[in-house]
From TrEMBL:
Bilayer-crossing regions: 1234-1255
Coiled-coil regions listed in the entry: 581-634
Keywords: Coiled coil, Cytoplasm, Membrane, Transmembrane, Transmembrane helix
Biological source species: Oryzias sinensis
Descriptive protein name: Talin 1
Length: 1273
């Protein structure tokens, strides 16, 4: 009995349900145990004759001794599992398979893109260019590091999640880990290409970096292959592949110099993980002893299963440690290692519990308990090692604990406001902590022999230094993690875009990601600067500032990501985005706390640091000037003249706002808030200097280049003076003299800012034009205006000519303000010259005035034009520096209208004695203003639909024609007032026509862009108008409307077929086809109204309208699908929907045709008869052609005599058929089908008669015969 039980125990450990090799006490290599699960949820019938797994013998029969166990077998069999033993894949496993396949494709694409690095634009050698290189390298390294963190964390997550029973595995979470790996690898490849290019530019070897990245991609691809749910390979392969991912990750990080853990720490981490495995191996051996002594087979199996699970979890811990060791600084990697440790702890508890249930032997249970305690201790040591690194790995100073207590208790006091008891308790703790800190500092002071050093130690600066160091260190770590979390969230958002069903939510998420992506570089630079200069207040404050600026956009991105998660159809992508958003929210919370504490500790250093920053910026400007003189100043990547000019103007406004804030705080003596204002001003000045450098590097004008750099340097000099005066004012709050000096310096700085903006290319030309207008306008201040000696007609013609030129120049200024600086400079210079010419002509016109009153009116109008012109130039100048401002656009448009109106007023007054003249001039100017609208038709000017625009164009074209005729008639007959009225009317109609054409153009552009809302509305309107047709008048018959509807319906069918074809070949053409379909249906619905009214009865009319209405509803569905497919050309699901909609439309077209045929059955017969007649006429034409040419030959040996009797006979038959058919037609009154039959028979008989005559006639036949026949028919 005992021998049988021992045999069952041996077979249970070495075969059957478990295939296990227990770890040896000393870990020379990883030994992995794999448990095979094959649980079926239902009874299945089938053959049990499955192929066996054949194994070689292990040395023949063995004998077993009581109380002993044979040695462990080292024979391992892998890759021989038969697929018949595997259950079918569940839906969750199938979904994971799809996720893995798509991720592998993404990984392969990323690997292929790493064949070569990016191409960098030419860069200069000044400080800004060098800083750009350094910052880009730092940013790329940060992004790569954070993405590698995510890859290793995802790999470790896959190892942990796939450890247990497949039936209990969370495959959605596994898919989330897979998408995390692939999406971050895709983004990482982009950063690697840029970093490799930067390394090559600085003399490094970028190819080695590309090779390391390709190795990582290859390792990830291999791991994903082994992770397939249908894969039958041993789990050892997955763990080995995961370990390779960790190894290649570490190699990649070492290539970029981002190995943030020393080799000793990683080695210790691995040793501690192996110590856990060794301790677990001892526990497994003790559990084996319990299993040997257990007689109950069920208890025995539970012990075996628990021991095996314990061995499995420890082997996974070792594999997980190998994966995350290179990136253990990442919190997500630490979490995965901790999760693996929890699995070990859980398996240990299970092993102990199973052993206690299986035996009451105190000795065995004690051995199991001691072994379990060893595992627990090893785990604790591993976790403590991880925790030590997470906290910084080194003590924070002798006074750190007391400082922490003071800061924490202070926060608690503020949060306890209202609770008197709690506030008293916290105050006592604060007093004790303060006492401890003071005593500690006193002890340090007493140990100093130098009295001066002792005094310094007792100062408050000691406390500030200790607190600052800790707070800044915490802020640095929080900022680093926040930047990494944001980078991973952006990658998750980009990966989820393809499966997001709500484009609005996706667009908001993309926009928030863009804003955060712009803030990440500043945060990374703050972290790097704090790391490289730990004792620099400037670096510390830059980190604090970047951290606080990052909080708001980061929070908005978290909100947008959480709102987007429910709209993502792919569960794995949704889970990835949700987890990333959660991690980012946690990182932001830590960053907010840490940055605020650091801000409180470093606040008094802000104003001094702002002054240092300004002095450093002055050095940068000097270097830029030197590079410009040498011709080496190059724009940085992404910099253009327009962008940098706008940035300079925007930052000028921001600096002005910061100045006002600084003045207010300094005059009140508030040092903390004044420091914050000074910091903000210095940061904005940094952006202003960068923009000024970009302008200087982008312009081709040497004078403009020097001017903008000089003005920027002047701004920095005035800024330094302002900060110094602010410090003095803070020290003497309320002192009138210091405040007066502060106000004077602030005014000087404001003037320097204005000069800086005015130095921009284009701005100087605008200022020159403004001065030209001002100088020319001085002539209007004279008391008298002598006559020029020219006639009124000459002066009037001259004034009209220069007025047209000035009006044209005003329009050009408006257009140029939205263009380049060169365009603005050219347009404003021309405007200034045209204004001078116009003013000269106006002054001459004033000199010819018959009365003083008339002269005064002319001069007054000229002054108004001068003022309007100046406002126009000022508005154009403002808009050129801030082209996105809607208010400035409105101001410019209003100024341009004011110039035109004032010119019209002057011309009207000067030509009021010439009837009709002023109307013509006004009309021409109105048409000229409309011309500008037509040259740039990008904005809607009315709410008319496409078809309403067409109708309006047709109606107004008639009025325009009548007006043109009136102009010609009245001009010939010297009816000058009527002539003038016609010309006003004409310009109005042409303006309206231009507006209507513009609306139609916008409708076509909308259809080409996939916007189909207007088309759907048009179709619905056509359906509604068709239903409301009781009061219509009609001139045609049912046959007329029926014939038109048949043609239109067929045109719809052809258009639908073209849409199906274009959906596969060229989806961009669907917009035009949808517009064509809309037009055709509108025509069909319009004809249907009249067809229904002229039908034989109301039932037929209602049926026709019903079928047309149903066709319209299907057309709206097809148009909608066409617009959707045009926006997403590769969406196969939308293509299928479009084809189905097209099929429905075609079906409804056939229904419409059927209803029309039922309305008048003879129509189709008439069509058939007409077709037959056309065929006969064509045959006659051909026969006559051959007869005329003399090439008409007889068939066989026929003679004329053979057919001589046929014409009379055919004629008799024709006559009989005519008579019979006519009688039947008149007898059956109203039956069009019989009439058609009569036509068909008549045509056939007549054609036969003529063919016989022509064919057998010996003389040529006149060619008019078939035409006569056609006319008769």
């Amino acid at each position: 009995m005992f021998e049988q039980r021992k045999e069952r125990l041996s077979s249970a450990f070495q075969g059957g349900s478990f295939v296990a090799v227990f770890p040896m006490p000393f870990f020379s290599r990883s030994t992995v145990l794999q448990q095979q699960f094959n649980k079926m949820g239902k009874v299945e019938t089938g053959s049990v004759a499955l192929p066996a797994i054949m194994r070689s013998g292990a040395g023949g029969p063995e004998s077993f001794q009581m109380g002993s166990m044979p040695q462990a077998k080292q024979h391992i069999t892998s890759g021989q599992m038969h697929r018949g033993h595997m259950p079918p894949l569940t839906s969750a496993q199938q979904a994971l398979t799809g996720t893995i396949n798509s991720s592998m494709q993404a990984v392969q694409a990323a690997q292929a893109s790493l064949e070569d690095f990016d191409t960098l634009p030419p860069l200069g050698t000044d400080a800004a260019s060098q800083a750009w290189r350094k910052n880009k390298m730092d940013e790329s390294k940060h992004e790569i590091h954070s993405q590698v963190d995510a890859i290793t964390a995802g790999t470790a997550s896959m190892v942990n999640l796939t450890a247990g029973d497949p039936a209990e595995t969370d495959y959605t979470a596994v898919g989330c880990a897979v998408t995390t790996i692939s999406s971050n690898l895709t983004e990482m490849s982009k950063g690697v290409k840029l970093l490799a290019a930067l390394m090559e530019d600085e003399g490094g070897n970028g190819q080695l970096l590309l090779g390391a990245a390709k190795n990582l991609a290859c390792a990830v691809s291999d791991m994903l292959k082994t992770a397939q749910p249908a894969n039958t390979e041993p789990r050892q392969n997955l763990l080995q592949a995961a370990g390779n991912v960790g190894q290649t990750s570490g190699e990649l990080l070492s290539h970029i110099g981002e190995t943030d853990t020393d080799p000793q720490f990683q080695e210790m981490l691995m040793q501690l993980a192996k110590a856990v495995a060794n301790a677990a191996a001892a526990l497994v051996l003790k559990a084996k002893n319990v299993a040997q002594k257990t007689e109950d087979s069920a208890q025995q199996n539970r012990v075996i299963a628990a021991a095996t699970q314990c061995a499995l979890s420890t082997s996974q811990l070792v594999a997980c440690t190998r994966v995350v060791a290179p990136t253990i600084s990442s919190p997500v990697c630490q979490e995965q290692l901790i999760e693996a440790s929890k699995l070990v702890a859980k398996s240990v508890e299970g092993c102990v519990g199973a052993s206690q249930s299986a035996t009451n032997d105190e000795g065995l249970l004690k051995q199991v308990g001691v072994a379990a305690t060893g595992v627990t201790q090893a785990l604790n040591e591993l976790l403590q090692h991880i925790k030590q690194y997470a906290s910084g790995g080194h003590p924070i100073g002798r006074h750190g604990e007391a400082t922490d207590r003071i800061l924490n208790v202070t926060e608690n006091i503020f949060s306890s406001m209202g609770d008197a008891g709690e506030m008293v308790r916290q105050a006592r703790i604060l007093a004790q902590a303060t006492s401890d800190l003071v005593n500690a500092i006193k002890m340090d002071a007493e140990g100093e022999s130098d009295l001066e050093n002792s005094r310094k130690l007792l100062s408050a600066a000691k406390l500030l230094a200790d607190a600052t160091a800790k707070m800044v260190e915490a802020a640095k770590n929080a900022a680093k993690q926040a930047a990494a979390a944001a980078t991973q969230t952006i990658a998750a958002a980009q990966h989820a875009a393809s499966t997001n069903k709500n484009q609005g939510a996706q667009q908001q998420l993309v926009q928030s990601c863009k804003v955060v992506a712009e803030q990440i570089p500043q945060l990374v630079q703050g972290v790097r600067g704090s790391q490289s200069q730990p004792d620099s207040p400037s670096a510390q404050l830059a980190l604090i500032n970047a951290s606080q600026n990052f909080l708001q956009p980061g929070a908005k991105m978290v909100t947008a990501a959480k709102a987007t998660v429910p709209t993502i159809s792919d569960q794995a992508s949704a889970m990835q985005l949700s987890q990333c958003a959660k991690n980012l929210a946690s990182a932001l919370a830590e960053l907010r706390t840490a940055s605020q504490k650091a801000q409180d500790a470093c606040g008094q250093l802000e104003i001094d640091n702002a002054l240092v920053m300004v002095r450093d910026l002055e050095k940068d400007i000097q270097e830029a000037k030197a590079s410009a003189r040498e011709g080496k100043l190059k724009p940085l990547p992404g910099e253009t003249l327009g962008k940098c000019s706008q940035d300079l103007s925007t930052n000028t406004k921001a600096v002005t706002s910061a100045i006002a804030q600084l003045l207010s705080e300094a005059m009140q003596g508030d040092e903390n808030y004044a420091g914050i204002s000074a910091r903000d001003m210095a940061q904005t000045l940094k952006s202003l200097v960068s923009a000024a450098r970009g302008v200087a590097a982008s312009t081709d004008d040497p004078a403009a280049r020097g001017a903008v750099l000089d003005c920027a340097g002047d701004v920095l000099d005035k800024s330094a003076n302002l900060i110094e005066e602010a410090k003095r004012a803070i020290a003497k709050p309320g002192d009138a003299e210091s405040q007066q000096r502060l106000a004077q310096v602030a005014k000087a700085m404001s003037q320097a800012l204005n000069r800086c903006v005015n130095s921009l290319p284009g701005q100087r030309d605008v200022d020159n034009a403004i001065r030209t207008v001002g100088e020319a306008s001085k002539t209007l201040l004279a008391d008298s205006f002598p006559s020029s000696g020219k006639s009124f007609q000459e002066l009037q013609a001259q004034l009209n000519e220069v007025a047209a030129g000035l009006n044209q120049s005003a329009n050009e200024v408006v257009q140029a303000s939205r263009g380049t600086t060169q365009d603005l400079a050219k347009a404003t210079s021309k405007f200034g010259q045209d204004f001078s010419n116009f003013l000269d002509a106006g002054v001459d016109m004033a000199g010819t005035s018959q009365s003083k009153e008339d002269q005064t009116q002319v001069v007054s109008n000229l002054k108004t034009i001068s003022m309007s012109s100046s406002k126009l130039l000022l508005a154009a100048k403002a808009l050129s520096t801030d082209s996105s401002s809607p208010n400035l656009k409105n101001q410019l448009a209003a100024a341009a209208r004011a110039v035109t109106d004032s010119i019209n007023q002057l011309i009207t007054m000067c030509t009021q004695q010439a009837p009709g003249q002023k109307e013509c001039d006004n009309a021409l100017r109105e048409l000229e203003s409309v011309k500008g609208m037509l040259e740039n038709p990008t904005e809607a000017v009315n709410d008319l639909s496409f078809f309403e625009c067409i109708d309006s164009v047709m109606e107004n074209s008639k009025v325009l024609g009548e007006s043109m005729a009136g102009i010609s008639h009245n001009a010939k007959n010297s009816n000058l007032p009527e002539f003038g009225d016609s010309a006003v009317e004409e310009s109005v109609q042409m303006m309206k026509e231009a507006v209507d054409d513009l609306g139609a153009t916008l409708a076509d552009a909308a259809s080409a862009a996939g916007a189909v809302g207007g088309m759907v509305d048009t179709i619905n309107d056509a359906i509604n108008k068709m239903e409301d047709s009781h009061t219509l008048d009609h001139d045609g018959t049912f046959v007329d409307y029926q014939t038109t509807m048949v043609k239109t319906a067929k045109a719809i069918a052809v258009t639908v077929q073209e849409m199906v074809t274009k959906s596969n070949t060229n989806p961009d053409d669907l917009g035009g086809l949808a517009n064509q379909l809309t037009n055709n249906f509108g025509n069909l619905a319009n004809e249907a109204k009249y067809a229904a009214l002229t039908a034989e009865n109301d039932e037929i009319g209602s049926h026709i309208k019903k079928q047309v209405g149903e066709l319209g509803f299907t057309c709206t569905g097809l148009v909608t699908k066409a617009g959707a497919l045009q926006c997403s050309p590769n969406d196969t699901f939308t293509k299928k929907e479009l084809i189905e909609s097209a099929r429905k439309v075609s079906e409804k077209v056939s229904h419409v045709l059927a209803s029309l045929q039922a309305g008048n059955r003879g129509t189709q017969a008439c069509i058939t008869a007409a077709s037959a007649v056309s065929g006969i006429i064509a045959d006659l034409d051909t026969t006559i052609m051959f007869a005329t040419a003399g090439t008409l030959h007889r068939e066989n040996a026929e003679t004329f005599a053979d057919h001589r009797c046929r014409p009379p006979h055919t004629s008799q038959v024709t006559g009989a058929k005519q008579k019979k058919s006519v009688l039947r037609a008149f007898t059956m009154e109203g039956k069009t089908s019989l009439l058609a039959h009569f036509i068909f028979v008549l045509a056939g008989a007549t054609g036969t008669l003529l063919l016989v005559i022509i064919t057998n006639c010996s003389s040529p036949v006149k060619t008019f015969m078939p035409f006569a026949l056609e006319n008769e028919i």
